[in-house]
Amino acid sequence: MDIKKTVEQYLNEISSSSPTPGGGNVSAFCGALASSLGIMVCNLTIGKKKYDDVQEEIEEAKEKLLTYQKNFLILAEKDNEAFNRVMNAFKLPKENEEQAETRKKAIQDATLEAAAIPMEVLKNCSAVFIHIKTAAEKGNKNSISDAGVAATLIGAAANGAYLNILINVSSLENKTIAREILKSADALIDDIDHNVKLITKIIKDSLSQ
């Protein structure tokens, strides 16, 4: 998402017939939204006497979440750029053998880069989760549901990124690299899904008491 645009403009762009912004961009933006909710929970905890014993942890979580919020927004823009590079590679001429080879290499290079962006989103989802968990477990209890929404959004961001990895690696001719990417992605998504379920259960149990 271009942060200079309004939410309405962003939604209209997603809804249009243009392929960008698409699922990869939205996945990264979900990560930014999750981080923002985590920051909100931290802000509602900082300075509260009731939470004096966790102030340092919450302050640290907030600083980390601010960093990831920026990371996700940058990755959202990079996803658009990566997709456009793939499309531009497909537009290259192929009228002779040399041109065809140049075009083929450009497509493969651009596709590999297009897979790398959602992989970065996935890695950021994995890394940010511990700080959302801190906000959920130690932050203002009146905002525990907000922390739960943050966790759910990280799950959405991660699974969206994973799907974008799948579609890109399926076009890679170098199957060794494709398998390596998928192996890393599988490990990350399994861990994230497990953590989302875990924190969601903790929050549901807390709200049911």
Automatic annotation (TrEMBL):
UniProt keyword Lipid metabolism, yes or no: no
Keywords: Coiled coil, Transferase
A Pfam short name: FTCD_C
Domain of life the protein comes from: Bacteria
InterPro entries registered for this protein in UniProt: Cyclodeamin/CycHdrlase, Formintransfe-cycloase-like_sf
Domain Cyclodeaminase/cyclohydrolase: 6-186
The keyword Isomerase is assigned to this record: no
Gene3D superfamilies for this protein: Formiminotetrahydrofolate cyclodeaminase monomer, up-and-down helical bundle
Ranges in a coiled coil: 44-71
Record GO terms (molecular function): transferase activity
Protein name: Glutamate formimidoyltransferase
